[in-house]
Amino acid sequence: MSSSEGLPKKEANVLKGHEGAVLTARFNSDGNYCLTGGKDRTLRLWNPHRGIHIKTYKAHAREVRDVHVTSDNSKICSCGGDRQVFYWDVSSGRVIRKFRGHDSEVNAVKFNEYASVVVSAGYDRSLRAWDCRSHSTEPIQIIDTFMDSVMSSFKMDCCLTNSDAHVVGGSEDGYLFIWDLVDASVVSKFRAHSSVVTSVSYHPKDNCMITASVDGSVRVWKA
User: Fold this and answer.
1) 13 with 218: CB under 8 angstroms?
2) Closest Cα partner for 75 from 114, 18, 46, 106?
3) What does the pLDDT look like over 10-44, one tens digit per residue?
4) Which CATH superfamily hosts domain 10-222?
5) Distance CA 76, CA 93 (A)
6) What is the pTM of this model?
7) CA 217 to CA 213: how far, in whole Å?
8) What is the sign, positive or negative, of the torsion defined by CA atoms of 77, 205, 13, 23?
């Protein structure tokens, strides 16, 4: 029988500041900070362990659906309902570049290992790759062989724990599930939010995770 011992399930902090649904929450590479984005068109930088809001990034014209941070924590990419991918400088809060090309909302973004390329996915049934080092705003690659949109209306998120032994996923009724990756058993299930869980991010080193929800909150969970 798989054990849930050592897995995070105690609420350590609640991060409040967004107006309306929070659609994405991601730890930075060392897990000391996190970024969130939501319906209020803002990105917010937090110290989740102390429950402190540090900075707000504003440029999106519609909701922010996903965010990712480079491994050196100096740059951010974000996307959302305005069909663009934003490339930011973390410290100044300045938008370095806006990548345009998607024909509909963009739901997911991720840097490659070297932070030289951003890949985005959206409702227009395409994946697009963008060169962060070039001044061009045109994609360097487009993959559009999908038959349906790459994401659905509420992006249901999941992630691996930092040991790769468990999968964490949220549900539309506010519950968080943790599965054993080997035997697929549910080792932990608890009510995390009062509405849809839209995002889950696991700390890179510690037994800690953050969750975001349509209920407008971001919650920090520890073992």
Assistant:
1) no
2) 114
3) 999 999 999 999 999 999 999 999 999 999 999 99
4) YVTN repeat-like/Quinoprotein amine dehydrogenase (2.130.10.10)
5) 9
6) 0.91
7) 6
8) positive
H/E element, 22: strand 22-27
Q: Using the CB atoms, write b or e for 207-223: b if 16+ within 10 Å.
A: bbbbbbbbbbbbbbbbe
Q: Count CB-CB contacts under 10 A for residue 172.
A: 12
CB count within 10 Å of CB 73 equals 14
**Residue 1: per-residue pLDDT:** 42
Tell me the three-class secondary structure of 30-42, residue by residue.
Answer: CCCCEEEEECCCE
Distance CA 68, CA 186 (A): 28
For residues 141 and 128, the answer to whether their CB atoms sit within 8 Å is yes
Contacts for 160 with CB less than 8 Å, ≥ 6 apart: 166, 167, 168, 181, 202
Residue range 196-219, pLDDT digits in tens: 999 999 999 999 999 999 999 999
Distance CA 8, CA 172 (A): 20
Report CA-CA distances (Å) from 26 to 45, 119, 141.
Answer: 10, 16, 25
Tokens of 72: 């050196």
Q: What is the pLDDT of residue 55?
A: 97
Helix locations, 56-195, DSSP H: none
